[in-house]
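Thread title: Can someone regenerate the structure for this chain?

I was given the following input by a collaborator and told the matching structure tokens would be attached. They weren't. Posting the sequence so someone can regenerate them.
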Amino acid sequence: MRLTSLMGFLADDLAVDLGTANTLVYVRGHGIVLNEPSIVAMKDGTVLAAGHEAKAMLGRAPGSISVVRPLQHGVIADFDSTEKMLHYFIGKTRQRKTIVHPRVVVTVPSGITQVEKRAVRQSARQAGAREAFLIEEPIAAALGAGLPVAEPGANMIVDIGGGTTEVAVMSLSGIVYCKSVRIAGDEMNSAVIQHIRKSYSLLVGERQAEEIKLTLGSAYPIPGEHLTMEVKGRDLIVGIPKTIVVTSEEIREALREPIMAIVSAVHTCLEQIPPELAADIVDKGIVVSGGGACLRGLGSLLHDQTGLPIGISDDPLTCVVRGAGALLDDVKLLSRVALPS
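Best answer:
Regenerated them for you:
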């Protein structure tokens, strides 16, 4: 057995979807073993909690504890916190202690800068990686959705995450054109917060805004649907807690601006690709992945705006990490799609 093969056998190789909203970890041979919010709580430089436990502290922690989201718009905003969070998650997923450190595949936005690439690689190595491979999110998402990215022919994917939306057309294991916009799930949450503040003079937190989006949010009118939800927050005029009722119609209108920005990115991508690839997309359509794909009516809106067939990937929330995990077993394809050092 070659030395590299032996090292791969001894180590638990990992794929990490280091997302703005959630971090997912895939262990080769075991599948997805971790799916937690990308949030870390620290006190005096020591990690107290990460993931779900840290999210529960948002807006509730005393001043001595800092609860942060170290990634913004898909890239590292706080290097130290990201490194500690990644170290915590990787340590949590390594069930057995191995002599050899694992190879780690990390997904990154397509528009990542050289400085950001170095920061991600260094974070992975500091967290215990033997080698760190960076894969662009659209390619990982396409692989997770089962698209034949290595074949000559266009495959188009719209990956809507927490911080960024990636709209890409791929062929022959490469990205022909990609439009990356920093508008995604977080911007939708902000739109909900702003709507409630403006319409009701009520201040709600990020966690509740996300709950409102998931419960009432939609991108396209759904016949016969009229949902309502009680929302609790602080009255900005008198300064005391108050409860209001919001409807699905007003939340759809609140989400309109960020959603149409994503539609605009899809149009830009379709306008920029060569005609031969455009012809392929007419037949194959567009696949949507990421957490944003769960927004009701999004497929109908994209079909209405483009006239193309729209498919939602199976389990869109885990699509990217499953695609990255598949590369751990395909060294040849990994070497072709990994970003250069």
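The chain has a mean pLDDT of 90.
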